[in-house]
Structures are given as structure tokens and as C-alpha cells.
Amino acid sequence: MKSPLNYVGGKYKLLPQLIPLFPHRIETFADLFVGGCNVAVNVPAKQYLCNDLNTPIIELFQVFQSTPISSILEHIDANIQHYHLTKQNEEGFLALRAYYNDTRHPLDFYTLTCYSFNYQFRFNAHMEYNNPFGRDRSHFSDRMRKNLIAFTTKLQTVNMEFTSKNFRDISLDRFTPADFLYCDPPYLIASGTYNDGMKGFTDWNKEHEIALYDYLDRADARGLRFALSNILSHKGKENELLQRWCRKYRAIDLCPKNAQTGYPINKQENREVLIVNYGVDNGNFITQPIF
């Protein structure tokens, strides 16, 4: 199931590799950097904790969760009609953007993403939506409508809690060894828009990176299972902090594909890994430390 949000760094394409590496029995699946919710909505568990510092995203998911799908679609369609939103009408897009920045309704935010450049979103330092218009490309298509219906239906049929906190404020006391923590933070050595401090949030830095390592070390000491998505190298850069820290755990190489060619990305260009603190039986192998 695909998230209705085009969240930079989302793991939708990696799900066939990730999910088989997760524990088979999960009481609470805790996604501490839920982003577009691509992972959480696809992982079998009895209940879910989905957290992200990006408050507008969490507020949108809460509306999806609590509002009848018919009302959600009526709101989006009313926006499209009122502002005459098309792939060419930038004036209507800018009018809705100004209205959203004054009123902050989550469904107006979602409508904006549907007509924004690359279906993405950005905020300035004043938390004003400022992503440009997606001329000749972005629009609320029939495919997006069907995807939104499926995604929202899933949110409304599972026990899923949404919070907007710093990951450090989520107490480990609430978890047991039957639970599973998943972390997909901004990548320290990447240069994506989610990591540039230009979405109205503090950019990810070494202090945050080290704090996350400490948080996961404490989780491990409590007997809690976790998995961390990250990259060891990216376009000639090395995450030396991560390379040193993950030696105590297991790092599994993933194989992301180039979005244009469809072929695997050269590991020297981008080495993406899943770091886990438990044994993984993936059919043919038990993972071992890579260092």
C-alpha cells in the first residue's frame, strides 16, 4: 500500500526488502520517524505508534484517521472546484496556498501537495507552505484518489496512534520485548530537502545522530528490538559515526534502484543498510556484522 504523500526519503520501493527482515510477531510497531507512513501501514502488528516531528503531516494523518472518506473527498473536490485547480492554473494554486497559510486545515494542505512541484511540500522559517506549483504535471488524479481511499481505509481499521514529538521524548518505558522500534531518520550525509533545515524544522546534525544512537543503545539494553534505516556512504561521503556505531549490531545491505533506469545503484555511490539488533533468518542466511 502506497502513502498518498510523496515524502522524500520514503521507503515504499524498499518495502519488499525491508518487511521480510522485520520480526514476524510484533505487538506494537513504533515508527519514530514515520514520514509518509509507507512502512507502518504495510507492517503486520497488533497496534502502532507513528511519530514525526513534522506536525502538519501528523495532523493530516489524524484527519484521515477520524474523518469519513466521503467527507475527505468532498473537501478535496470542493477545493479543486472553488480554486479551479488544474495542471496549468498556477493562480488558483497560489490562492489556495495563501488560504492554507492563514487557516491551516490539513485537507487544504493535502490538496496543495497534489498540485505542487513533484507532489512535495516545503515550509519556510515561519511555517508557511512555500512549495511551488507543479505545472503540466501535478494534479489529483484518479489513481491518487484510489490510493487515498485505500490508505485512509487502512488507517481507520487498525489501532494506530499518531504523535508529533522529538524521538527523545518518546519514553522507552512504554515498550516491551514484544514490540519493535523502527527508525528512518534524516540521513546525516545526504542532501535531501528533508535534511536541509528548510521545511520549518531544525536540520539533522551530528548531535541528533549521536542522540539517536544513544537512544537505540538504551533500547537494546532493555531487550527491545529495533531496526535503523540509514546510509553508510553517499556520493563519495562516508558516515564514519554510523560505521563505528553499527559494529556492535548487524548491518544488512539493501539494494535501492535508480529511479530513472530501474537498475540497482552502485554501492560505491550509495550504500543503504538496515541495522538491526536481532538475528534475521531471511530464508538463505543469518545476518552477520559487516565490519
Any idea of the CATH class of the largest domain? Alpha Beta
- Uncertain spans, ≥5 residues at pLDDT below 50? 193-200, 258-264, 282-291
Q: Count the strands?
A: 8
Output mean pLDDT.
Answer: 89
Give the topology string: H per helix, E per strand: HEEHHHHHEEHEEHEE
> What would you report as the Rg, rounded to the nearest angstrom?
19 Å
Instruction: Name the shape in a single word.
Output: globular
- Strand proportion, as a percent range, falls in 5-15%
Helical fraction? 25-40%
Based on secondary structure, the structural category is alpha/beta
CATH superfamily of the largest domain: Vaccinia Virus protein VP39
How far do the termini sit from each other?
A: 35 Å
**Helical region count?**
8
Largest sheet: 8 strands, mixed
Report on this model:
This protein has 291 residues and is α/β, with parallel strands linked by helices. It has two domains: 12-54 and 164-276, Rossmann fold; 61-154, Adenine-specific Methyltransferase, domain 2, CATH 1.10.1020. It is built from eight helices and eight strands. The protein has helices spanning 15-18, 55-66, 69-82, 90-103, 106-114, 142-155, 206-221, 240-245, and strands at 28-31, 47-51, 160-163, 180-183, 225-234, 237-238, 250-253, 270-276. Strands 1, 2, 3, 4, 5, 6, 7 and 8 form an eight-stranded mixed sheet that branches. A hairpin with a 2-residue loop joins strand 5 (225-234) and strand 6. Residues 193-200, 258-264 and 282-291 have low confidence and may be disordered.
